[in-house]
Amino acid sequence: MADDCCSSSRDNNGGGGGGGDAASCITNLSHDHLFSILLLLPLDSILSFAMTCKKTTRLTRSHTLWKSICTRDWGHSTVDALLASSSSSFSSVDWKRLYQRLRNLDRVSCFSLTPPTNDAQGPTPTPRASHSLNFFSGCLVLFGGGSEGGRHLDDTWIAYVGNGFKRMMNWQRVISDGPSGRFGHSCVGIGDCLVLFGGINDSGVRQNDTWIAQVVIDDTTNTSSSRLAWRLLDVGPVAPPTRGAHACCSIDNRRMLIHGGIGLSGLRLGDTWVLHLSENLCFGTWHEAVTDPVPSPRSGHTLTYIGGSRTVLFGGRGMGYEVLNDVWYLDSSEGHLGWVPVVFELRNIPGGLSLPRVGHSATLILGGRVVIYGGEDSYRHRKNDFWLLDIGSKRMWRRLKSEGYEGRSRSFHRACADESGRYLYVFGGMVDGILHPAEPAGLRFDGELFVVELVL
């Protein structure tokens, strides 16, 4: 390795002009110019560039540079959320070390947030599955779902979280006119609102209505004292066919994407629809995205927006009731939507036979990758495992070790991440119950809330 590429350049050219002139040497660029160039490069190129000379080596060890790389790759809001985290010392973090530890993430740590029955902190949501759970405006927002006795719920609950996770959570039930009782619906945050679509009601009727809600937080009390107002969104004469158990995500501050689900007569769907919201959020417009190729029809799968122009689809139950493990991404980089299958080498899928699942959760985490949790296989065996999915250049599956609290295996739960992407919240789902004579089916709805922390 050269100690100083400028001096090497002068030696090779006799100190004269021409291509080896010191003025043309990259290390004669100002610190700010070099800094800007490095931020245009992928990580591997930055590390290679660090080996060229002393000046670049010093620069690539810079705390400021690595904080800027984290901001570039994770986003300003994520870095700000990490800095604001009350449970961590990120204000003095070694950003390079944090970045590298995240790239090599191999474990999570779990903590129960459900108090013992005799120590309950006020009312809590009843056990349920196929509900919705969103992290929105510093709060967890839960709506609906299916419950014991075939009843489907229409209640809305809010728990204030703020920065970092808390060992205890206080739920508040919000009383407001909103969507009718349902399960298998979708609900996502878009801009400063929540958008809900579809679902199945008590009578098994599929819905295709679109609702919008906004949350107002009482910051003065630093509690979950909040208001939430639902209203039916005007979408005009065109809407997706009725369905439930579909997949959904937001893809920017004005668009929501849905795919598949169970339609009329239990038929599994394979269509893709996009909702465009107006700037004032007063109305929306649905249109179907027709592409070729397309993922096969399915239900109980997941869609996860991972930033840029890509949204990841994984798993679900197919037309023949088979449980799937294929991965696709929806590309919007060319101004139109197109599905692309993701092919993995077998050596990059450790324990690949355990991957097919339905009713799992897929959550975007810090660093732009996806954590897959739980679900069930074709034999309805529920899972309690965590997998890291990366569809970047490495195209990797990695099973994550789990430490701390161990929840029950579950499916059709819901999970969401806080603004930092470091903490995942998991609530409810179907779990294996204890068999009793009066309960021939060992199947129960769960009302547990726990947090999953990335160990960095």
TrEMBL record:
Does this entry carry the keyword Hydrolase? no
- Cited PROSITE patterns: FBOX
InterPro entries per the UniProt record, alphabetical = F-box-like_dom_sf (IPR036047), F-box_dom (IPR001810), Kelch-typ_b-propeller (IPR015915)
Query: Pfam families recorded for this chain?
Result: F-box (PF00646), Kelch_KLHDC2_KLHL20_DRC7 (PF24681)
Q: Does the keyword Cytoplasm apply?
A: no
- Record's signal peptide: none
Per UniProt, residues of the F-box domain are: 23-69
Q: Which domain of life is it from?
A: Eukaryota
* Entry keywords, A to Z: Kelch repeat
Q: Please identify the protein, giving its name as recorded.
A: F-box domain-containing protein
Organism, per UniProt? Centaurea solstitialis (yellow star-thistle)
